[in-house]
Specification:
By secondary structure, the chain is of the alpha+beta class. The protein has 2 domains: 2-109, Pseudouridine synthase I, catalytic domain, N-terminal subdomain (Alpha-Beta Plaits, 2-Layer Sandwich), CATH 3.30.70.580; 113-266. It is built from 6 helices and 11 strands. It has helices at 18-31, 84-91, 111-114, 129-141, 203-212, 255-266, and strands at 2-9, 48-50, 59-68, 98-103, 115-125, 146-151, 154-159, 164-170, 188-195, 226-239, 242-244. Strands 1, 2, 3, 4, 5, 8, 9, 10 and 11 form a 9-stranded mixed beta sheet that branches. A hairpin with a 2-residue loop joins strand 10 and strand 11. The chain is elongated, with a radius of gyration of 20 Å. The two termini are 37 Å apart.
Length: 267
């Protein structure tokens, strides 16, 4: 039996790593007394499968986890799916809130393979809305946006442009109620939809792309965006031209529409 959970990661918990989050979940699942299925070998571990790793320091409204239960144990049949979100939320740290649990087809494939794009809301200081709009327009109009990525301690040169599916600028976005940075400076909102295949894009890499593009504004200087907060609002799976989130609900029709609606929900 396989269960898929959707959960949030908000507030101070955003500074914990993916490995730490996995440990939190393992501890909570054991305390909940669920009949977990375990791996084989000398060090059996619960059969957990997380979605795409969230960069440390980023928040999320849409994290996913697949969990396998041991069907050979009689307790499995008695598991109440509707009660699991509340039970597990109480056992997890503040900021991790389990929103939904649903049965999942064991043959559906891993989340890391299935997810094709993610929606993000971000807030920037160092630029005005107009300046950020100029940078967004320049990035979207460019054929190539070269950036340097860091992978396993090495620098690699790559083209960011194919991975940017949609960008929308707004002075009032993001799930956080405050619209200023730590120094009290107003910040600017951006919603992005970024591809995850063949390689995912982190918010810091989008910032590098926005900073690298040439902005045609004559003699006027355009500020460089500084990322204050980033929140992943959804992960998307696309099959046969139909886009769904990992629990089966369908998405919007275009990348820009999806980004705009995410911004409305987050405001």
């Amino acid at each position: 039996m396989r269960i898929r959970f959707r959960f949030t990661k908000l507030g101070r918990i955003r500074f914990t790593s993916q490995r730490d989050v996995a440990r939190m979940w393992e501890r909570a699942l054991r305390r909940a007394g669920l009949p977990l299925a375990y791996t084989e070998g000398f060090s059996p571990r619960p059969q957990l499968s997380f979605g795409l790793a969230l960069p440390t320091g980023c928040e999320s409204l849409a994290e996913y986890l697949d969990l396998a239960l041991d069907e050979r144990r009689p307790e499995t049949a008695a598991v109440d799916m509707s009660e699991l979100p509340g039970v597990l939320t109480d056992l997890l740290p503040v900021g991790v809130h389990v929103e939904e649990a649903a049965p999942c087809d064991r043959g559906a494939g891993s989340l890391q393979q299935l997810v094709t794009s993610c929606s993000w809301t971000m807030r920037f200081s160092g630029v005005t809305s107009t300046e950020l709009e100029h940078r967004v327009a320049s990035l979207l109009a460019a054929d190539v946006v070269p950036i340097v990525r860091e992978r396993k301690g090495r620098e690699e040169h790559d083209d960011l442009r194919p991975s940017v599916l949609g960008l929308v600028v707004s002075a009032a976005g993001q799930h956080a109620p405050d619209q200023v940075d730590a120094a009290g400076t107003p910040t600017v909102g951006l919603v992005a939809e970024l591809a995850t295949q063949p390689r995912g894009v982190r918010p810091v890499e989008l910032v590098r792309g926005l900073t690298a593009v040439s902005v045609g504004t004559g003699d006027r200087t355009v500020g460089n965006p500084v990322l204050d907060r980033a929140c992943r609002t959804q992960q998307w799976i696309e099959r046969d031209g139909i886009r769904e989130e990992p629990l089966g609900r369908r998405g919007d029709t275009t990348a820009v529409d999806r980004a705009a609606r995410a911004l409305e929900r987050a405001s």
